[in-house]
Amino acid sequence: MTETTKTHVILLSCGSFNPITKGHIQMFERARDYLHKTGRFIVIGGIVSPVHDSYGKQGLVSSRHRLTMCQLAVQSSDWIRVDPWECYQDTWQTTCSVLEHHRDLMKRVTGCILSNVNTPSMTPVIGQPQNESPQPIYQNSNISNKPTAAKILGKVGESLSRICCVRPPIERFTFVDENANLGTVMRYEEIELRILLLCGSDLLESFCIPGLWNESDMEVIVGDFGIVVVPRDGADTDRIMNHSSILRKYKNNILVVKDDVNHPMSVVSSTKSRLALQHGDGHVVDYLSQPVIDYILKSQLYINASG
Prior knowledge:
By secondary structure, the chain is α/β, with parallel strands linked by helices. The chain has twelve helices and eight strands. Strands 1, 2, 3, 4, 5, 6, 7 and 8 form an eight-stranded mixed sheet that branches.
């Protein structure tokens, strides 16, 4: 498959991130590596979306702190971003609504437009000078300067905090990217872009708990979007999926990360990192990056057993 025929993916992880751990970042890296190895996907970005304060989980520190810690944790990454939308809402948002928000957002990314294959749009790129003569934006070309993950991610990263969104009636869409550095002629390539929910096998297992998830939300999450599962501690994902009719129904939309590296997924645990902080355990460095530890100590977070 060529780069333009592969499915371009943005990985979205929702959670408390209380605090965000090294393991959370490793999940992104493992998922990206695995999806690339399948030969079917190109991961162009990752989004960390901390939960709203009204989620009500015991010991949940304010979103102001959790957003800062997440930003510190990904500051050295060139492809993972932190998005505050979920925290900035009036109340707690379902995972389904967060996915739908980001799907809508991607449809309105600055510097990119959406176009029907059969009826290419003449709408100028957002920010394109309006006094220039319109150029055909959908044309065949043998030019080798194809859209790259870096170009698309750059457009996405610039836009995450600026764009309003509307809810589209469609589930999957075509993402049209402008080839950069081609002078005044605008050339576009159509690629398929999908947002996949990134989670651990513990979240997958929670789908099997009766009444915990709204079934219509599960249909949208697994059926419309799809999920990438990073197994934790030898979890049997096949067994988990067989316990849910919805997971069985959309099994092809569930991508389980399989690699040969033995990762200690316990380092994903925010609970264990908080306990290590409370007990003054030096092994906290196994769970948290140093910038996050420094911020926690400076802000005096998680010092009390209740936090």
